[in-house]
Write a structure and sequence with these properties.
It is built from seven helices and 15 strands. By secondary structure, the chain is of the alpha/beta class. The two termini are 15 Å apart.
Length: 305
């Protein structure tokens, strides 16, 4: 099968290449999926789990990629809940990856059925941003109707999901980002927008919840905007930023079939839109992940026509 591999951690995406690899086999509780579309998180090659297994052993050369949509072609022993020929979408384990390929072996529990009226490219683009937004807002941020949410990077793949889900839940949403992304954030449902290079972030508060996708100084400044009892939720890594009378939660998403089902139903209903910036073929994937200009939105690899 064709697959993208990386052998040099220091080279980053520039070290990607397209090669022939053996097709994977389904272990216990796995399914093999014929990949139709795949996603790749921009900093995935910096994650320790990309380069080692759970025992710390080196697993290079690596086939990266966690996000996928495709069709089940084989079941491992003991697998339940899915069947051969079924359309699915979801996430591979970060210690296994492998979705930038024509076939991948994935734990069945990490996948959900993909309805026939949802395109594979949409399925691959919604899994990680959707789960990140859902868990950050509702599990960790405990968002309720009538609250206010400050969303950093509101025009991006994750931020746009956060904005839409928060609006649907009855929150007042303030987006932030580059000035050039103002209209995109408003189109996704932000009711106000703060251009971080021009506007005063401090004027955006107080808010009940900050969803931080940026980290660093922005996270520190945001902590002061949270009203008593509020929460700073971040996926940008551990931070010293703390609200004076609230919580800071740094989290990593976990795959959840039920939540994937909730998310894809909203896509079907037209209540949730994915933010796809570019679609490329597997043959063109290396160039797509090394763009000559900034791409707004998620890059998706269409593995099969």
């Amino acid at each position: 099968m064709k697959a993208i591999i990386v052998t040099d951690r220091a080279a980053g995406t520039a070290g990607m290449k397209l090669v022939e690899q053996p097709e994977p086999q389904a272990a216990i509780n796995d399914v093999v999926v014929q990949v139709h579309a795949s996603g790749f998180t921009w900093d995935e090659l910096t994650w320790p789990s990309t380069w080692t297994d759970r025992l710390g052993r080196d697993r290079a050369p690596v086939i990266p990629g966690q996000e996928l949509a495709g069709v089940v072609t084989a079941l491992g022993y003991g697998t339940r809940g899915l069947s051969v020929g079924q359309r699915v979408f979801g996430l591979a384990d970060s210690y296994r990856g492998g979705t930038l390929a024509e076939y991948v072996a994935v734990e069945a529990r990490n996948l959900a059925p993909l309805p026939g009226d949802v395109d594979f490219t949409v399925g691959a683009s919604v899994a990680m941003p959707g789960l990140t937004a859902w868990q950050g807002l509702f599990e960790h941020g405990r968002l309720r109707a009538g609250q206010s949410v400050l969303v950093h990077g509101a025009a991006g793949a994750v931020g746009s999901m956060v904005t839409q889900l928060a609006r649907e839940a009855g929150a007042y949403v303030i987006g932030t980002g580059r000035a050039a992304h103002r209209q995109t954030a408003l189109d996704f449902g932000a009711q106000e927008f703060v251009a971080l290079e021009n506007d005063a972030l401090e004027d955006a508060g107080p808010v009940d919840l900050v969803f931080d996708l940026i980290g660093g100084d922005i996270a520190k400044r945001s902590a002061g905007l949270i009203r008593a009892g509020g929460t700073l939720v971040t996926i940008a890594g551990p931070t010293e930023a703390r609200p004076a009378d609230g919580l800071t939660i740094d989290f990593v998403l976990v795959s959840d079939r039920a939540q994937l089902g909730e998310i894809v139903q909203r896509v079907r209903d037209g209540r949730l839109w994915t933010n796809i910036g570019k679609i490329a073929t597997l043959d063109d994937a290396v160039a797509a992940f090394n763009p000559t200009k900034r791409i707004s939105g998620k890059t998706i690899i269409r593995v099969r026509p």
